[in-house]
């Protein structure tokens, strides 16, 4: 039997979970389809990917790249120097690793890496998670061979002949989860007889959502419902202090970051969340009833657009960031006891799932690497 060609793949990007986890999921799918494929991640020094990618079992090299500071223009001199250094380092990595293909998932590092790859004749594929294209991906699109997207209408940003509708890749461990609801609840120290609300702020945490929880701790403590509250790393101390002052309570599990999202989803009857594209893909694939509070602080208000694609199909409940303090917790407590509404939300959101995204993208990666479709 003829040995399969061994392909080498660079995957680059990160900054937040929304870029990192699709990248890990693409890597897993490539490895599953072609076990002897060699994969190298290129991230940004000091960012979340430098921890999460090795945890997922892959090697990563960091570039000294940083984002532009739109408020303090002078600071951008050092940003430009870092960018030049990153460009140089990306070239050196590509020269040494000799990838057959480079995949960009958005975020700081993917700019210099994919630019260098393109200039050195390595075919490139980009994956855009949102309904609005990020600056880096728009710049890289001209040279990219394939652009994998999750929303309709992306030809506003990218050449339509390069676009493939794949949906966002979701980590395989979430989809193949076998843990029971009882075991999942037990892993968070919670009671299997009670309804459970999972509160998520995206990979970095969400200030507004945290404030809503902190402002309603009495209501939360005295409710018949229990909560898993993910605060994000920068808010955890403040959150713990607030809980301590209000008096610890058995129906509230607080954490900065949830590693085992499969159990968190299995435990939850209802989710409260920001409207990051990756989170939304997970809710769709797992059929989770959700209240979305889109972040107003992201480019072109893209989270509201992500959210509205669901809300308009009665597949999610919408609470505006500015109204969250007044409405969010009451709405969640009402919704979680309304079985009919929970079922309707779950049925409707399930219809929007795009399964198999990682496998489809992995197949495209293989095609590019083996020179079949350039
Ligand atoms: C503030 C910001 O810039 N947000 C952007 C970022 O969101 P963010 O980084 O929050 O990303 P997403 O909502 O897309 O995905 C979050 C991911 O983190 C995982 N997770 C989350 C919490 C946790 O404790 N553990 C855990 O593993 C989720 O399961 C999910 O896989 O990237 C998204 C995708 O480009 C964008 O749509 C968001 O607008």
From TrEMBL:
Residues 196-352 form the Glycosyl transferase family 28 C-terminal domain. GO terms for molecular function: UDP-N-acetyl-D-glucosamine:N-acetylmuramoyl-L-alanyl-D-glutamyl-meso-2,6-diaminopimelyl-D-alanyl-D-alanine-diphosphoundecaprenol 4-beta-N-acetylglucosaminlytransferase activity; undecaprenyldiphospho-muramoylpentapeptide beta-N-acetylglucosaminyltransferase activity. It is an enzyme of class 2 (transferase). UDP-N-acetyl-alpha-D-glucosamine binds at residues 16-18, 130, 171, 203, 258, 303. GO terms for cellular component: plasma membrane. SUPFAM superfamilies: UDP-Glycosyltransferase/glycogen phosphorylase. Residues 9-148 form the Glycosyltransferase family 28 N-terminal domain. The keyword Cell wall biogenesis/degradation applies. Gene3D superfamilies: Glycogen Phosphorylase B (3.40.50.2000). Belongs to the glycosyltransferase 28 family. MurG subfamily. Cell wall formation. Catalyzes the transfer of a GlcNAc subunit on undecaprenyl-pyrophosphoryl-MurNAc-pentapeptide (lipid intermediate I) to form undecaprenyl-pyrophosphoryl-MurNAc-(pentapeptide)GlcNAc (lipid intermediate II). This is UDP-N-acetylglucosamine--N-acetylmuramyl-(pentapeptide) pyrophosphoryl-undecaprenol N-acetylglucosamine transferase. It comes from Bacteroides graminisolvens DSM 19988 = JCM 15093. The lineage of its organism: Bacteria, Pseudomonadati, Bacteroidota, Bacteroidia, Bacteroidales.
